[in-house]
Design brief:
Structural class: alpha/beta
Number of strands: 12
Radius of gyration: 28 Å
Largest sheet: 4 strands, mixed
Number of helices: 12
Distance between the termini: 47 Å
Strand content: 15-25%
Length: 360
Amino acid sequence: MDFNSIKINVLITFLVAVVVFLLPWADRRICRRLRLNLEGGLSENPNADRLLRLRQRLLTLGLLLYFVLFAWLVFFSRAATAYYTVHVAPLEDLKNAFSTPTGFSGWFRTLFTEGIASAFSQISIVRPEDISQFYLNVMLFLPVGYLLPYVFRWFRSRVRIRPVAFCLLLSFIVENLQLISRRGMYDFDDIISNTLGGLIGQLLYIAVGYVVTHPGWRKELRQYRAWRHHARRRTLFPYTRKAQAFRTTLMGSDEEAVRDFFVRQLGFRLRQQIDRRESGDVVFLFEMGKVQVQVFCSPSQPIPETQYLTIFATRLSAVRSRLEMNGIRTGDYRRDPSTGLRLLRFTGPDNLQIEIIGAE
């Protein structure tokens, strides 16, 4: 392995370490200085919405710049070759980079009979450049697996599967584009090493990025473990991954006001309207995504003094702007006492109190 390869590996390792360890530390310190809440709670800074949007754009720009550098490394820094090259033997190059006198089967036998020290003393490196290439492919995708959940909530919501799945798909696309453009070979080992890098990156996000930017994680983890231990044998626990709030039932008086509020102002879809001629009642079923709101409009039934509807939404600042565009005044953000997240509250027809809880 030449000196240039060593320099490249050392440089990339240093840059990856800076991203993994320095980014969340600097992000947390800057947000604390600006009085911004990174955990979705109420921020003390009156310009929090604008600053959080700026933070999101800067992080997105940083990720895009990394993808530009990545594209240059895997495509534009190489000249097109005259032939198409394909290598599909899984981990063959990495296996051939090492040599043992008794073969790998004998090496495993030594590992279990004579111990780790004796087994590793029999290994010699004969092709360090193959190890360097495998390591480089791992390190190139490690920031992808790390930054995707750090920057985008969609990846954070399923952090154990979505980042590594994206890295697998991206690596597959890159290898095929290299084959088509003849700027490099289609190497199955690269897909394996790239996916491994994405997996390590997402694990580092959980262990470093999330831990640093969410200092209350220990308390949440203890509460989750206590609940899981208690609820393991309860009725619904085996089905909690599939269970969700589905329908809320409210009472109404003015049919036109109810329809106008839910459909025109909030954007629900009128899924069904049932007119009961014998009683004069009207039942509305409004739907948005997987949430349904059922409203009974009856001239004979009294309206409760207060009715509540609580909705969870992301990008709460954008929700607030859209509500005000449709003539709904929400006032300032509040803090939900149960979750610590930001909360918007406004009133609807028939003593309806609507709360929207969420985060950026």
